[in-house]
Amino acid sequence: MLRSRGSDPEQAREALELLCRDYWFPLYAYVRRKGHGPEDASDLTQEFFAKLLASDFSRELAPEGGRFRSFLLTALNRFLVDEWRRSHRHKRGGNTVTGSLDALIAERGEASYVGEAANHVTPEHLYQRAWAETLLSRVLARLAAECAGRSEVRFEVLEPFLALSRQPPALVDAAAQLGLTLPAFKSQLHRLRQRYRELLYEEIGQTVDGSAEVEDELRGLLQAMQT
Q1: How far apart are CA 29 and CA 25, in angstroms?
Q2: Per-residue pLDDT tens for 184-194?
Q3: Is residue 187 within a helix (H) or strand (E), and if so which, with residue range?
Q4: Are residues 97 and 6 in the same domain?
Q5: What is residue 65's predicted lDDT score, i.e. its pLDDT?
Q6: Is the pTM above the cut of 0.85?
Q7: CB burial class (10 A; 0-12, 13-18, 19+) of residue 86?
Q8: Are 187 and 209 in the same domain?
Q9: pLDDT digits (tens, 9 = 90+) for 21-48
Q10: Which region holds residue 124: left if phi is over 0, alpha if psi is between -120 and 50, else beta?
């Protein structure tokens, strides 16, 4: 996505929309935790994404350890400093590229932020946790889409055994819902967990510089979820 800067406008616009849709909330939550109100946080988040791909603003920045989330946070902090110095912003709705992000923030941004910010955590911790939850949600969504194409798999029954934040039901009860014996259910769950792990590593691999970074990034994300 970052490499699309400087390419044709349509490609850059598509990359921006993808970036906004997938990773807008961790940055919005960070800006809110920094003390900005909902409307200002929405403005700043949209403008950050627009400027990130539309200019050379972040060209000199390098992701720490090859991590995309670290890159974005460093770039966002520089952007906030620059905005503070200029003391002016475009009004909401003025940038058509991020119009869809405005709708996402209006629909889910503040409600999600209130739920995340219930605990007294630093902006950095909130950002890391929100990033981890966003990434894991993307993995579950991809796995659900795969299962939807296979009639023998009911993802809604198996999904509780994958979610870190949910207590799964008893194995025997879940097996009964699917009309399977306990051994057959365990076998199906094992295959699903293997695929979940593959997708998780694939998703993380898209946000780090090389496979050697995946394990370290995964440990960091899990730690952010647990603290």
Answers
A1: 6
A2: 999 999 999 99
A3: helix 182-205
A4: yes
A5: 57
A6: no
A7: exposed
A8: yes
A9: 788 889 988 999 888 888 888 889 888 8
A10: alpha
| More confident site: 122 or 94 | 122
Pair 103, 126 in one domain: no
Which residue, 84, 100, 118, sits at the end of a domain? 118
Measured CA to CA in angstroms, residue 51 lies from 55, 59, 90, 136, 165 at distances of: 6, 11, 12, 27, 35
- pLDDT tens track for 47-84: 888 887 666 555 555 555 568 888 889 889 988 988 86
DSSP string, 113-177: HHHHTTS---HHHHHHHHHHHHHHHHHHHHHHHHHHT-TT--HHHHGGGT-TTS----HHHHHHH
Are the C-beta atoms of residues 26 and 127 closer than 8 Å to each other? Answer: yes
Residues 129, 105: one domain? no
Token output for 108:
């889910």
CA distances from residue 225 to 11, 60, 165, 214 in whole angstroms, order as listed: 34, 30, 9, 17
What is the span of the domain harbouring residue 75? Answer: 1-118
What is the domain count for the chain? 2
Cα 134 from Cα 18, distance rounded (Å): 14
Residues 20 and 81 in one domain: yes
> Do 4 and 38 reside in the same domain of the chain?
yes
Domain end point (choices 94, 118, 142): 118
- Count of CB atoms situated within 10 Å of the CB of 215: 12
Tell me: do 105 and 131 sit in the same domain: no
**Same domain? 128 vs 224:** yes
